[in-house]
Design brief:
Number of helices: 8
Number of strands: 12
Strand content: 15-25%
Structural class: alpha/beta
Strand order of the largest sheet: 2-1-3-4-5
Shape: elongated
Order of helices and strands: EHEHEHEHEHEEEEHEHHEE
Length: 232
Amino acid sequence: MNYRITLVEDDPQLQENYVRALEREGYAVDSFSSKQDALDAFEASLPDLVILDIMLGNELDAGFELCQYLRRRSPTVPVIFLTARNSDIDRVSGLRLGAWDYLTKDATTLDFLPVRITAMFRVIESLATTPQEPGSVIRHGMLSIDEERKEVFWNDQPVLLTLTEFWILVALARRPGHLKSHGQLMSAANVVVTNNAIAAHIRRVRGKFQEVDPDFDHIRSEYGMGYRWQSG
């Protein structure tokens, strides 16, 4: 499949280098230098994957704002942050906004970036082609998860999750009461991230349920060990 990638990067030399590296791997790449140009392009159509710098021109958090916009348009389009900002606060913020990955420019070579993106597309393809049992639905109380459609409902209200958040939730909900370690949740979501990043994903999942039901409290933290879905 020919994938189309959008790159938002305001450094002309870096933008050119990233585009060349991705095009060498066969990807079609659209590149933009400003938040507004990217927004105009996203209004017309969404690509298969988006790579965002955070600081664009004088706008310190433009990449975060673009990610928020993309999540409102689609809960599943993969977003990668590729930025010079390497603090844990920024990493957690990016993942809480629904990004699939957070890469720093000082640690991401032109050889690694296409390999990382190819691995992500393989995960997406695997999820899309993995056969599901007909009518494969997880139900616990007010929770309903349709694995085939990748849809989540709480008290018949939709809860819009990213794919990473969806698979973390499925891993917890399949066996209520059973503890899932950070490593098990990483494996279920097909990501390799820090424990803090998993915690950020969990907080975001909780927050989305609480938007539907402010009293939601069914994902329990076990300090230093992991998380469990608590029914009842």
